[in-house]
Specification:
four-stranded antiparallel β-sheet; 11 strands; 0% helix; elongated; mainly beta; 119 residues
Length: 119
Amino acid sequence: QVQVVESGGGVVQPGGSLRLSCAASGNIERIYTMAWHRQTPGKERELVADSTGGGTIVYAEFVKGRFILSRDNAKNTITLQMNSLQPEDTAVYYCQATIRVNGLYSDYWGQGTQVSVSS
């Protein structure tokens, strides 16, 4: 059994910062990708930032220069430092991990954490 759990959402004023954390646990053989996605009502889920096991990090254009993804392979965790938040960043943020269990890679998702940016 594998679990992916996010934490750290909340309410912040425009221009503020929040830090999201995600931890994967369970019967994990290896984690390939760990990533953050977000979704607002009526829209498709979109990629925010993605990291491979080799250390490559890719950011969506709309967060470049504002968000920073960090990954700790030893702890199976990633964090997303979100700075200069704007109302359009309001969304449910999901952590996703591609994890090898019993020799097979599958995608696992967290339950999501709400981020609200409002004055």
